[in-house]
Amino acid sequence: MSSNRIRRGKITVLSMIALLLLLTGCQTEPAERNPDQTESRTASAPLSDSSGENTVKPAGGELTYALSTSPDSLDPHRSGIAVAGRVFRTIYDSLVAMGADGQIKPWLAESWDISDDGLTYTFKLREDVKFHDGTPFNAEAVKYNFDRILDPETKARNAAAMLRSFESAEVVDDYTVRLHLKERSNAFLGYLSQAYLGIVSPTAAEEYGEDLVRHPVGTGPFKFVSWSENTSITVERNEDYKWAPGTVTNAGAPYVDRITFHIIPEESTRIGSVQSGQVLLAESVPPQNIPALEQDADIELYNVVTNGLPFTLFINQSREPWNELKARQALLYGIDVDSIVKSLYLGYYERSWTPLTPKMLGYNKALENSFSYDPDKAAALLDELGWNVGADGIREKDGKKLTLHYVEISPNREKRNDIAVMVQQQLKQIGIAVEVEITKDYRTVVFENGDYDLYGNSMVNTDPESLRSFYHSASTNVAGKQNLAGMKDPVIDQLLEAGTVEPDPEKRVQIYEQVSQEIMDRAAVIPIFVSPYTVAASKHVTGLNFDFLGYPIFNDVVLQGK
Amino acid sequence: MTVKDFVLGKTVWRESKRQTAARPRLRSLGTGDWLAAVSGVILAFAALCALFPGWIAPYSPTSMEADRVLLPPGAAHYFGTDYFGRDIFSVVVYGARDSLLIGVASVLAGGLAGCIIGAAAGIAGGVIDLILMRFIEIVMTIPGILLALAIAAVLGPNLFNMIFAVAVSMVPGFARVFRSQIISVKGRAFITAARSIGMPAPRIFFRHVLPNAWSPVLVMATIGLGTSILTAAGLSFLGLGVVKEIPDWGTLLSQGRGYLTVAWWISTFPGIAITLLVLSGNILGDWLRDRLDPKREQR
């Protein structure tokens, strides 16, 4: 009996040793791969640390970046979600680049010329650019990309929306391309700078077709290596790269050997991995973890403002009783945005007052503090409409209870589900019963069936023209008949159209200030917060930059002391 | 007398003493009963919380105050406050209602269904027994929490579906225990005697079989109460629970998860509440089993 137990103990110890060996074996594998990479690097580029000069940056290493969700696609024309954009930026280049200051800089296009009527853009392209598959980048490739986006077969989502005013592309010579627009668009260059209009290899697009989603080929600083679903995406350095945009300092190939994007949806795990050193960078730091990370000597915290549309609650005014202005105003006065932002984001997120974020062109500063939380006023407005408080504290009219269907997305990103919980309590005070529906399948519920009274959304974008897809009556992305706000308003439509074509920047500012004012006058939406993009980074990572949209740029990144 | 003899003598004496006089009586009124009493008090308190939460909770479980978020436990807020500014003690007290409701209702529903299947199989025997028990075995191959997860995911989150999901996962256990109990009682002499004097089958079943077969089921139900509360909390934790104004314990546990390093108290207290309730159920179940086990008295 006792000898038996000893033997079992021995076996346990032996198996543990075996397991340990197995584990360490797994860990050393990537390290073994590193040497031959260093070899190829020293052979091709003068980036090695052999010279003692300080000006030569130490190169190499693997950058690990923890993403909060998985990209839906690696075909830039077929995705519209921000997390995919962060990966696209490593694989694809655009014709032009937009720096953090909002200035347009050359990239794949060396220079460009805009006709006086604003309808023709002539781009002079770089002649030394090659796609990752070895095929040359030229005017034909650019034309192919724009034709591809407009081809309904491609099912382009975001990209097609940005090319709304685009008409056709014309190849002038090998390295000159002319883009014709249907109408003047001030947003056009900004759109061209976005990753969703990145240039894909025509050869690869033809070869893979729909499958380009999993076989991305571009001209970017990194080449695609592998994507394991819901786990990680790996890209490696493009040795031939020498066409970096004017927004970064390193014009050549990036310094790091490869970047692995790990997909870690669980907040505390993601932040824990950067604290423990398992990954070097982690995005979307929850506000409650910020104080501790700020104290951490090994961690650098980046807090980047993103631009576009803030996180906004859209009231579906095509449904009763929210078609009434007073009912919507009751929501605007009955929701205490200040305490939501203060409780959930602990002062790290800024409260939003308008349909645009503060750094956008045409931001209407006058709207700040233009209204305040006032449940009594909200209640009075509902009284006026004939909604009287019933026995259970919920208002009724003609035997119908006053309910509000609030749709939110699972998983709980940026504590948006918690906003719903707070709104539910606040609106209960003024006699509105809020039914919160938290669903993974928001596309069906909101965009196909239009079954919501309140739904929150935000958008990262370069130009206020993006308001069109949310407020213009011609935008019918919800149930094929309405925009997210359910708005059909000739005044707003006219202003949005004028804002698109107005050549004078001063006048554009006025137009968009007025659009914001009109939207808020109609109590169409409840702006909640401006989402910052937060990244916790190991101090070993230097040279990390962010573009205007808050997307990380890795060209200048150097790993130090690693 | 050698030392060895002395030691041996002492040991034997001790052993014999324990075996003869002291053991049975002391044990039967010892720690087991004491623990069972404490468990009973805890369960009673939980039931009180579920029935009259307003008497115990100092605050409304839904009132959110932006100026009291993430306060640590203290005199004003025994369990601290969460990130909404809710008093966690009050939320836990009110949350007892759903946790207990789901626990009791799913045990009743699952137990009843299981017992009916088990009784049918046990009485009928033959092909019906074979079919019913194979079906139960198929259900048993799927782990309880997985089965509940699948049902909750398919039917969608609401209270009834949640009870249904947890209840289904409890059916196999009850069915098997009750069936074997019925079979064992069925074979006893007094049943044969009843049959021989021409008693109708339903009467035999209700008068003689059932009263002699139910006690293990009672034990299972008490222990099952804890299990089902745990399963329900697990479902809520995974986001498949009921979306409602007052969160149940599993939901609260899940809400506090992201704050563990900052405000440990959000998840800890509902966690302790679940642990205490489940443990109490199990201890009481064990105690009941000891009491109801006829073999115990014979010893």
From TrEMBL, chain A:
It is found in: Cell membrane. SUPFAM superfamilies: Periplasmic binding protein-like II. The keyword Acetylation does not apply. It is a lipid-anchor. Residues 1-31 form the signal peptide. InterPro entries: Peptide/Ni-bd, SBP_5, SBP_5_CS, SBP_5_dom. Keywords: Signal, Transport. Residues 40-54 have a biased composition (Polar residues). CDD domains: PBP2_NikA_DppA_OppA_like_15. PROSITE patterns: PROKAR_LIPOPROTEIN (PS51257), SBP_BACTERIAL_5 (PS01040). Pfam families: SBP_bac_5. Residues 103-476 form the Solute-binding protein family domain. Residues 30-39 have a biased composition (Basic and acidic residues). Residues 30-59 are annotated as: Disordered. PANTHER family: OLIGOPEPTIDE-BINDING PROTEIN APPA (PTHR30290:SF9), PERIPLASMIC BINDING COMPONENT OF ABC TRANSPORTER (PTHR30290). Belongs to the bacterial solute-binding protein 5 family. This is ABC transporter oligopeptide binding protein. The lineage of its organism: Bacteria, Bacillati, Bacillota, Bacilli, Bacillales.
From TrEMBL, chain B:
CDD domains: TM_PBP2 (cd06261). The keyword Cell membrane applies. Keywords: Cell membrane, Membrane, Transmembrane, Transmembrane helix, Transport. Residues 96-285 form the ABC transmembrane type-1 domain. It is a multi-pass membrane protein. InterPro entries: BP-dependent_transpt_permease, MetI-like, MetI-like_sf, OppC_N. The chain crosses the membrane at residues 34-56, 100-123, 135-153, 159-178, 217-242, 262-285. It is found in: Cell membrane. The keyword Transport applies. It comes from the Bacteria. Belongs to the binding-protein-dependent transport system permease family. This is Dipeptide ABC transporter, permease protein DppC. The lineage of its organism: Bacteria, Bacillati, Bacillota, Bacilli, Bacillales.
